[in-house]
Amino acid sequence: MVLDAILGRRSIRDYANRPVSEEQVKTLLEAAMAAPSASDRRPWQFIVVRDPELRRGLARTHQFSGMAEKAPVVFVVCGDEQASAHWMVDGSAATENLLVQATAMGLGGCWVAIFPREERERHVRELLGIPSGIRVLCLVPLGYPAAPKPPRTRYEERCVHYDRY
Ligand SMILES: Cc1cc2nc3c(=O)[nH]c(=O)nc-3n(C[C@H](O)[C@H](O)[C@H](O)COP(=O)(O)O)c2cc1C
User: Fold this and answer.
1) Cα separations (Å) of 161 from 23, 99, 164?
2) Which of 74, 94, 104, 138 could covalently link to 49 via disulfide, CB atoms 3.0 to 4.6 Å apart?
3) Minimal CA–CA distance to 67: which of 78, 55, 75?
4) Which residue, judged by its Cα, is nearest atom 8 of ligand 1?
5) Domain annotation for the chain: domains and CATH numbers
6) Which residue minimizes the CA distance to atom 6 of ligand 1?
7) Residue nearest atom 14 in ligand 1 by C-alpha distance
8) In the predicted model, what is the mean pLDDT of the chain?
9) CA distance 60 to 94
10) What's the count of helices (H) and strands (E) in the chain, helices before strands?
């Protein structure tokens, strides 16, 4: 059931010493690019980073990005702001699709924020040679989890309103 993967998706920050194949990467990107997109513009761009030196650089982006060094692969989710004002929203939908698909494949990742911090974006842009106009939304370090995390529901009745707020 899709809900199993959705509730099973947890932020994974420690990874087993096990590779992620090109085929798996392609499946994850296929899931990402199947996300809904405003006016079907699909402004997303993805950089798949495996190079250890570049991953070390990504890990140094900020205080909470250190796991990029340990993950076998890091997805950098970007968006073309010329193509769509919704680049950030569309990229977020794509990122969630990728994370849920990873869970279904026994993999685990973590959304690492870049947007909306300019200094973080500048760091990633310079490191990976990202052209101006292509914005950086987030990093997703990903691999096989070092330890399982239990699925959980986060359903809260107080967040639900019927007919009127
Ligand atoms: C927009 C966004 C930014 C996040 N940034 C980071 C981050 O920089 N570093 C990190 O370790 N986790 C980050 N997270 C993961 C959250 O900490 C995590 O989703 C939250 O604690 C709930 O845990 P769960 O993902 O296991 O359900 C981010 C999540 C989102 C949605």
Assistant:
1) 42, 28, 6
2) 74
3) 55
4) 112
5) 2-159 (3.40.109.10)
6) 112
7) 111
8) 98
9) 24
10) 5, 5
Average pLDDT by stretches of 10, the chain with 165 residues: 97 98 99 98 99 98 98 99 98 99 98 98 98 98 97 98 98
What is the end-to-end Cα distance of the chain in Å, rounded?
31
Tokens of 33: 């690019």
Residues shown for the chain = 165
Of 133, 25, 124, 156, the residue nearest 83 (C-alpha)? 133
Q: Which residues contact 12 (CB under 8 A, 6 or more apart)?
A: 108, 109, 110, 142, 143, 145, 149
CB 127 within 8 A of CB 54: yes
Distance from Cα 125 to the centre of ligand 1, integer Å: 21
